[in-house]
Amino acid sequence: MKITEDNFLTKRNHLRYLEELRILAKKNRNNPTEAEYIMWRYLRKSKYKFTRQKPINRFILVFYCSEINLAIEIDGDSHNKKKSYDLLRDRYLESVNIKTLRFKNNEVLNNFDEVLKRLLPFLRGDVTK
Length: 129
Prior knowledge:
The protein is 40% helix and 19% strand.
C-alpha cells in the first residue's frame, strides 16, 4: 500500500509503516550499535515506554515513545552524507507531531552527561511542542 496523508493512520489510530521495514527493524534491534545499547539501558528505566527500531511511514526510528511523541536518533558517520534525507524525515515526523532529538554516536559514547542535559527536559515533561 502506498502511504499518503489520507491513510497515514491505521484503523486503530496507529501510524502506518511500510511492511517490509519490519524485517529490517528486527535485524537492527538484534544488532544495536554501542551507542544505541548505552541509550537503551538508560531509556528502558524511564517512566515512559520506548520502542527500539520503530517503523513509522517509510522510516525506522532508533527509539520512539508514543506517550510523549518523541523520537531519539543516534547518528553515526554515515549521516554526514544524508543530511537532506534526515531533514526530510524530521519534517515528516514533525508533520505528525513527533519531536526528534538527534545525538551523534560520539556524544553518547563520550559525553553522556551532555546528552542527558538535552534529553531530560523531554522526559520530565518540561518541553512543550
